[in-house]
């Protein structure tokens, strides 16, 4: 250091503030809401805490795996694993999503880490979309929620994989015209593997958790204050039913490993509408949109989010017409 004076670290820094905020989110609702004594606030708090508690373990898993990729996986290894041709790498990444049993929150930091390690954005984003939707945990939960309906399970797998690959090829076609920032932070190239691991975990968790909380706030608000009667009135209409459940999936931000049980409860809706709910949710919801905007930039999210939503709805509709 040129000045010779050591930089003093503030007694309460970003790490401490985030830790305090997370503890308040997880524990505070239990005492605060009864004091307010309002049913809507109690419902909002329950949904909000449930989303955060349900998503945080998968976010931590994704951050840890992202850090492992950053610290240990070299570009040389990636070049051997990922096809050299990105057009071929997109469907390979889609199928590789089977190997990550986790929620969609885990895929965002992993995709960012893959991009930092030199993987083509189209390939990494395909993996981001496929992993939460076609992994074994999701397949099993769908089969349990829809017993005796193997074609429905197959339809979800096919429509989700089709969505991921189609969006990946769209990103590839956009080439350099898709604005994407790398907000993964910069690491000291001379740092040890341990230091790179710790730096990545610290940065990715602090950055992603804030946007996870923001998305949970939006989802809980919509779940609480949008009347369910508005949804039920369009259940009997084919096109409106599909669009309604697709919009509902985007807004309620359920975990992909539990959303099948919610979809099964929509008895008034058609099978294709239920399929749209299950394809749209893991691909894009308000929580994911918030996290992706924070990770890759708002300009990227403004283009990426609508394309994913439209592609998911079209894929679900076509596959539902074909298989269901």
Features:
mainly alpha
When the domains are counted, the total is 1
Q: Got a strand count?
A: 0
Rg over CA atoms: 21 Å
Order of helices and strands: HHHHHHHHHHHHHHH
Let me know the largest β-sheet. Answer: none
The whole-number mean of residue pLDDT values reads 75
Q: How large a portion of the residues is in β-strands, by DSSP E?
A: under 5%
Helix/strand structural class: mainly alpha
Helix content: over 70%
**CA distance, first residue to last residue:** 67 Å
Q: Low-confidence segments, ≥5 residues, pLDDT <50? A: 1-15, 186-190
* Overall form: globular
Q: If helices are DSSP runs of H or I spanning 4 or more residues, what is the number of helices? A: 15
Fold and architecture overview:
The N and C termini lie far apart (67 Å). The chain has one domain. By secondary structure, the protein is mainly α. The protein is globular, with a radius of gyration of 21 Å. This is Permease. It is found in: Cell membrane. It holds the Pfam family ArsP_1.
Chart the SSEs and their pairings.
Elements: H1 14-36, H2 39-72, H3 75-81, H4 86-96, H5 104-116, H6 121-134, H7 136-145, H8 150-174, H9 193-225, H10 228-232, H11 238-252, H12 259-264, H13 271-283, H14 286-296, H15 298-323
Helix pairs in contact: 1-2, 2-5, 2-9, 4-6, 4-8, 5-6, 5-14, 6-8, 6-13, 8-13, 8-15, 9-14, 11-13, 13-15, 14-15
What does this entry show, briefly?
With 324 residues, the chain is mainly α. The protein has 15 helices and no strands. The relative contact order is 0.13.
């Amino acid at each position: 250091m040129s000045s010779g004076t050591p930089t003093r670290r503030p007694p309460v820094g970003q790490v401490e503030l985030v830790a305090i905020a997370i503890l308040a989110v997880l524990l505070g609702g239990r005492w605060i809401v009864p004091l307010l004594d309002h049913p809507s606030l109690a419902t909002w708090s329950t949904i909000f805490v449930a989303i955060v508690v349900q998503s945080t373990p998968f976010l931590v898993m994704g951050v840890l795996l992202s850090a492992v990729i950053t610290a240990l996986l070299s570009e040389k290894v990636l070049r051997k694993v990922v096809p050299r041709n990105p057009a071929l790498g997109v469907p390979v990444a889609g199928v590789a999503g089977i190997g990550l049993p986790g929620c969609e929150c885990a895929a965002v930091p992993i995709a960012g880490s893959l991009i930092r390690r030199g993987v083509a954005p189209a390939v990494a984003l395909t993996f981001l979309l496929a992993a939460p939707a076609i992994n074994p945990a999701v397949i099993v939960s769908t089969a349990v929620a829809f017993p005796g309906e193997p074609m429905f399970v197959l339809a979800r797998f096919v429509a989700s994989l089709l969505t991921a690959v189609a969006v990946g090829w769209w990103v590839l076609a956009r080439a350099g015209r898709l604005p994407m920032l790398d907000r993964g932070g910069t690491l000291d190239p001379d740092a040890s593997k341990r230091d790179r691991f710790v730096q990545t975990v610290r940065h990715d968790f602090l950055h992603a958790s804030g946007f996870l909380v923001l998305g949970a706030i939006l989802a809980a608000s919509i779940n609480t204050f949008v009347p369910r009667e508005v949804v039920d009135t369009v259940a009997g209409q084919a096109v409106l039913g599909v669009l309604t459940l697709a919009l509902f999936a985007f807004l309620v931000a359920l975990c992909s490993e539990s959303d099948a049980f919610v979809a099964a409860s929509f008895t008034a809706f058609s099978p294709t509408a239920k399929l749209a709910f299950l394809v749209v949710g893991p691909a894009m919801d308000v929580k994911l949109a918030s996290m992706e905007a924070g990770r890759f930039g708002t300009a990227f999210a403004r283009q990426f989010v609508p394309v994913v939503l439209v592609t998911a709805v079209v894929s679900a509709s076509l596959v539902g017409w074909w298989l269901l």
